[in-house]
Amino acid sequence: MEEKGEITVYGSSMAKKIAGMFNAFNEIWPGGFTGGIPYDENRVHDMLDKTSAIVDLIAVDPEENPIGYCGLYPHWRDKNAAHISILGVHPKVIGQKFGKRLLLKALEVAKEKGIFRVDLHTWSGNMEAMPLYKKIGLFWVPETSVYMQDYIPGILQNPLAKEWFEKHPDWYSCFQRKLKQAPDKEINDGMEVFTYDFEVGEDKLSMEVDRYGWGFSGIERILDGNKISIKSRLESHHIVMGIENSLSFTIENISESDVELKLAVVPFKGLKWLEDFPSSIIIEKGETVSNR
Length: 292
Hints:
- Strands 8, 9, 10, 11, 12, 13, 14 and 17 form an eight-stranded antiparallel β-sheet that branches. The chain has a seven-stranded mixed β-sheet with strand order 1-2-3-4-5-7-6, sandwiched between helices. A two-stranded antiparallel sheet has the order 15-16.
- The N and C termini lie far apart (about 50 Å).
- It is about 20% helix and about 35% strand.
- By secondary structure, it is α+β, with helices and mostly antiparallel strands.
- The chain is built from seven helices and 17 strands.
């Protein structure tokens, strides 16, 4: 079915119409959107004309009336991430998938800008939106109310994943996810992770995120009958200053040729490695290599 309307980038000429849209948000926003002071053209200019936004996205209907907004802004404490400042649609278009289209466009922009992760905060009563958030790759961080992280931009930039998505470019349709309206607590080999699974026929891709490290801890790719798996594991997620811990890698190559991987392990301030990691490693076809 053909989608109506489009997603575009904010321009100052839109300000007057956007003021009307923001005022309409009051009908559905907990506690009201405007703070008791209706938006006018000047207030929109003040809000959107001179900001630090990566992009301010506007959904417009076929008559070019603004009906949705999504702001993508730099993260306040992670230079590799961005966050959704506001996401909202006009009450008259609720259920018409403009929120989904705005979020997908925000993730696309994040990927193009080299951003690894996109965050979103919502409120615990916003359960109606939770299936949408989770289907586009957001994970509800446990013990929060409600802080969500989306690693899709980073996945789409990963070299091994990029080869998979060259064959299967529609990641949204390939994404396999149980849409539970609850925090996403998953423990794998003693580590708390978020797992992204993609599948088309016999081709599969699984990306694992260390939710404390904010980075990938594992990837398993099956493409055209060839399988490669890389998994990193900490002895313990409970890291204490001055106490030794260990990091291990397991690499499996079930393919028709040898694979050379380059390893770049960069310690953060205060972390010292007792042994050096090899700069590269060759895994012969059919071989599994473990390094601790």
